[in-house]
Amino acid sequence: LCAVRYTGCGRRRLPAEQHRRTLPPSRDTVTMTVAYAEYQPHVGPQDALKLTVVAAVQETGQVLAKELLVRLHTPELTLTLLGPAVVGQEVPVQVVFQNPLPEPLSRVSL
């Protein structure tokens, strides 16, 4: 896993995991969890995470590889009019923003 800039250039490689197993003749799943604290210092507002998986088949020497680019999305603002909008008059508006991060935000302005 590595952080990549919006241009596609790599920024920083994040911790890697290696798994060795004998696969049955069906699907198998490997789960990898990356905590926000691990990637947060290495990504900017327009960056992404690139996951690269490589598998090798010992019996045949065949190598398989796959990449997945994960774009980090900025949460949306929700705007709701709380009254009728009339020309020349104020109208109350509700703005809702939900912080999806596991830490408080600071220096936020609307």
From TrEMBL:
Record key words, sorted: Transferase
SUPFAM superfamilies per the UniProt record, alphabetical: Transglutaminase, two C-terminal domains
Superkingdom, taxonomy of origin: Eukaryota
GO molecular function: protein-glutamine gamma-glutamyltransferase activity
InterPro entries hit by this protein: Ig-like_fold, Transglutaminase, Transglutaminase_C_sf
Name of the protein in its database record: TGM1 glutamyltransferase
UniProt source species: Melospiza melodia
Native organism taxonomy: Eukaryota, Metazoa, Chordata, Craniata, Vertebrata
